[in-house]
Write a structure and sequence with these properties.
The structure is a homotetramer of 287-residue chains. Chain A is an alpha/beta fold and 287 residues long. Chain A is built from 8 helices and 13 strands. Chain A has 2 domains: 81 residues, Alpha-Beta Plaits; 195 residues, Formyl transferase, N-terminal domain (Rossmann fold, 3-Layer(aba) Sandwich), CATH 3.40.50.170. In chain A, helix 6 links the parallel strand 8 and strand 9. In chain A, helix 7 crosses helix 8. The longest helix of chain A has 24 residues. The interface between B and D is medium-sized, with 22 and 22 residues.
């Protein structure tokens, strides 16, 4: 990650002439030097999307005033939806996991080796299995058993905990529980899940068994933001591996694990870097 | 393709001890030198699969007697399903196509450049568009318009034509018609189709539109043997390409075309080389 | 390709504040609506790269005056290198080929099926083999035998022919001759070659033999602009296929052919769409 | 991994008729049921390769006598090179690492989650950095500083330690030291390295810098057995990722890390499963 202090602005709105000029003018006039700009116009949906980042060194608007200022000067007139981020702040990540820990270990390794410049204040699970791993890495572990009866209350406690810890991103690292609409609503576009299949394909809990029975030659994995529609959230990242008739279910599961791990981490990384923008249940992934 | 005259034997049956020994003994005792053997045991389904090829030079059983002889000596006692092929014989391939010709051109190029050592006696279409291309390459072209009323009769005529031409393989190179059960039954495991999506996924006629709406990050293509269940036949080959939000439908279609072309040709090539074996609606693809 | 008439501007220069604002302002003030903008700043080399396209419908500067006008208004002050293109004009493509025709057939198919909206006035070869194919597709074929003695003269004639035909792009579709510096100089960044290996790797004429001997598990292909340094030109596109010990040289060559075909066509397509920019012997490939 | 106790036999020798029959007969006659057989004949080099595994339950030759017995009955007459393995025995793995720990963490995670059914008695490093990680996972850590002067002695101590621990496989998980011929000789075909590039390509210590300067569109990684010729050992596994001009060196390194991790683990896994056979500085990778 670049060491200079930078501002990142994500914008989407109805397409009309002059948006880029207006925004770049604005940054220029206030002493900002643009580091990267990536823009996309969806000519079918007549929508405009942009990610622009600039050097804050000589920028003359204080961070705390940026939002109001940008709204008055630019955003309002173009009826923009936008979000503003500053590279200084380390993001806080919470990991939800059940019994399988391959994704968990991968994320912890990226954090431990400082590949990911984030804080991980808490690991949450509906089982006790991952507790030992959390301890290994010196991270607080919370065990929230889930049953139909207590689910609502447990989620309420989880939300409190996550708020108290100031969590920015929730990673479902093979968390085999469905989050209620209430929970999702609180953390809109902040919860990232890994689905062990490509989507759409083989809905249900045992995709590798289906894949084996169907005799497919590729298996996939999909990482997406969690929405009310299970496994229907905006897709951030997908990839596949090739398989053959020689791959029994155990082998499919093994290859699938590596794929899930990689696809989830790529997706989280893009989110951390503010490269993702959600619109109409689709994602724009900036360069 | 190796120039030596070789026999190829495809076997599947219930697994039991001694199959490999029996078959390899048999070949050895009759003067055959094994060129390649690929075997697979499905421990879940307790099934045995094998492809073995051997040099015919010193082999002392005449080709025309092989079937009966192998049945008596080996196949019966193991209750084998098997098929026997000889490298000498050039296979005869028929191409079915509608309006889109990208797969057609690709196959014709492989034939023309002698990459594929096959004969292509006939191209069949429900439209006239491909006629000019067929003429370019000096291949007979037959136009069979299809409507609900005449479909049965047209297919009857097609079957006659294909039989008369001694066709071994029928390639549906983007043929946008569903073949009736009657037709499929006549050419069981000889009809190869390309489906412009991975399977299972986005059923229906416009997968790229669905892919666009869903915002997927990969699109796929699947080549399979045609069975009574539309798009549910045994999968021979699958592959994907990565796409982004920048790919509009036109771009998805374009990338999809290249993928369809490649996946279909890979599948047909494997069939030609007798590398495919169908069982329980799945394929075994030998090395 | 979008049907609206659009202008495409490719820019690179030393990075400094205000470039994007200046260019987008300029387009806006003259009635142009930006369709797509892709920008990249190389912070290591302190260089700025941009591709911007806009709708010409309401644009108030005549095409023939654009160059001078843009130079005066914008380019000079930023010391830009730039090129300007208009979507209306169909590009003229010349194909150079030797004996192997797989890339040739692929390109002709894309042209014939109208996937590529270009003209192909001429096919040039140092052998007569491809003449028949050229005739099939109704394209003029020129046979220029090459020997050390006559090479210079033959290239002179080729240049005359290409100029006379108004050729924009020269595709070396497996053309097994090294072009002289003189020739390359005339068509700087207009000659695209396919190298049957990844670069750097296995220099020399028989990479698949080297790959076999070395027992590699992947083979690659590289498409690049031709420069004075053989096989060292700016890379446009690369890809690979996985191989195993079972792939003998014949099989490697066969898999390599498909790869060469695909990689070359992808590269040419990007060039046609004005997505490529060459700088410091590297390419910027815009979205 | 299958739970049944199985024997695995790896064979290579000059090709001649009757090898498969002889070996499968032998297994059959002694009560073994073949679980998997994969054979390959290199018709160019006239060499025969085979991996065969069988169920030991009813097999009537004691494990300790197998070697001698098989030699007398079969191996001698065919002048075979062969190795025999039994699924019961857990293999012992030693990890060599320098400062970068991404491959180390990945391997430890696979061991901890029991994906890999191996023992890891020791982690060895020329730096102290990885000591803390080793402690986390409760594995003995040995710090062997390396300088030109003491290298020979340090390696001697390492060999003693590895022998004492009964190590079967040495994984160089980004170990930035060149092992001397003496060391390699002791652990022939037991030392697996990950090279952060495809081979052959960009020799030297900073391949990602070269890749950036050259503007490549793919970067690769190669896992191979370590031989006297640095980076020239038999290749076990290779793969690539696509990159663009937007990937600066930091980004190339980051993508390269994921690739190295995956490619190394795939290679080690194949070795553990006895799927690899080395011959003429190439590997045969069985199914």
């Amino acid at each position: 990650m670049s060491r200079i202090k930078e501002a990142i602005l994500l914008i989407h709105c109805k397409d009309k002439p002059g948006i880029i000029a207006a925004v770049t003018e604005y940054i220029l006039n206030h002493g900002g030097n643009i580091l990267d700009l990536d823009q996309h116009t969806d000519s079918v949906k007549q929508k405009f999307y942009m990610r622009v980042s600039w050097d804050l060194e000589k920028f003359d608007i204080p961070q705390e005033e940026m939002d109001t200022h940008f709204k008055q000067e630019i955003a309002s007139s173009f009826k923009m939806s936008w979000s503003l981020h500053f590279s200084g702040k380390r993001q806080k990540l919470a990991i939800f996991v059940s019994k399988q820990q391959h994704c968990l270990f991968d994320i912890l390794a990226r954090w431990q080796t400082k590949e990911w410049d984030v804080d991980i204040p808490v690991i949450i699970s509906n089982h006790e299995d991952a507790g030992e791993t959390a301890e290994k890495f010196g991270i607080e572990f919370y065990h929230f058993p889930i049953t139909k009866e207590i689910k609502k209350d447990q989620e309420a406690k989880q939300i409190l905990l996550l708020k108290e810890k100031g969590i920015d991103i929730i990673v479902l690292a093979r968390y085999m529980q469905i989050l209620s609409h209430g929970f999702i609503d609180v953390f809109r576009n902040q919860v990232i899940n890994i689905h062990h299949s490509f989507l759409p394909a083989f809905p249900g809990a045992r995709p590798y068994h289906s894949a084996y029975e169907r005799g497919v030659k590729i298996i996939g994995a999909t990482s997406h933001y969690v929405t009310e529609d299970l496994d229907e959230g905006p897709i951030i990242e997908q990839d596949i591996v090739h398989v053959t008739h020689r791959d029994d279910i155990e082998s499919l599961v093994r290859k699938g694990r590596d794929l899930e791990t990689l696809v989830l981490s790529r997706a989280v990384w893009k989110h951390i870097r503010r490269k993702t923008l959600v619109t109409d249940n689709r994602t724009i992934i900036f360069n």
